[in-house]
Amino acid sequence: MKFLKRKKPVLLIVFTICFMMLVSCEKKNKTEKDIPEMRIIPQTLIEIAESNLKVVAITQKAQESKLENSTQLLFKKIESEHLELKKEIRKIAKDNFIIIPNTLYDTNTLKSFISEANIKSYLNRTTILLRVELDQYKRISKTTPSDQLKILADETILKLEENIESLENKKNNN
């Protein structure tokens, strides 16, 4: 009995510490489960915003030169699709609390670096950029856990393939 009286405060402290550790571990497990997993990697959105900007800039630059009407319309179509894509990328970024630098939406700076070229050169450059984008979107479609980004990628893949085919036909006809 003497033993218990002397060790009672020590046992109480040990019991309290063990109880606190147990409660702490339970809370830690709950908070880890409550944190939503990151479904979209920010770098992915930044990369597609950047490649989108390049396509918009080159199509705008191409439209500044003298083109035949059908080629002008093709570049205008590609540009408008990519401007719409820009809005979708921004929406997905906003919905997922991802910040994309505003410089990735300004084509004026990039257009100044694109040199004047002939029609065939614009067609080649645009085709190359669209192929790079196509590869990006195919990769995203296969690997992203985000339904929102997967839907965007699948829709964009179809448009890119159609535009690449149109550009190839234009190159062969010029």
What descriptors fit this protein?
174 residues, 2 domains, single chain, mainly alpha
Overview of the structural elements:
This protein has 174 residues and is mainly alpha-helical. It folds into 2 domains: 35 residues; 132 residues, Ferritin, core subunit, four-helix bundle (Ferritin), CATH 1.20.1260. The protein has 6 helices and no strands. α2 runs antiparallel to α5. The protein is elongated, with a radius of gyration of 28 Å.
Radius of gyration (CA) equals: 28 Å
The CATH architecture of the largest domain would be: Up-down Bundle
**What characteristic shape results from the CA principal axes?**
elongated
Overall average residue pLDDT: 82
Number of strands: 0
Low-confidence stretches: 27-36
Helix share, percent? over 70%
Could you describe the largest sheet, including whether it forms a barrel?
A: none
Number of domains: 2
Structural class: mainly alpha
Approximate strand percentage:
under 5%
The end-to-end span amounts to: 104 Å
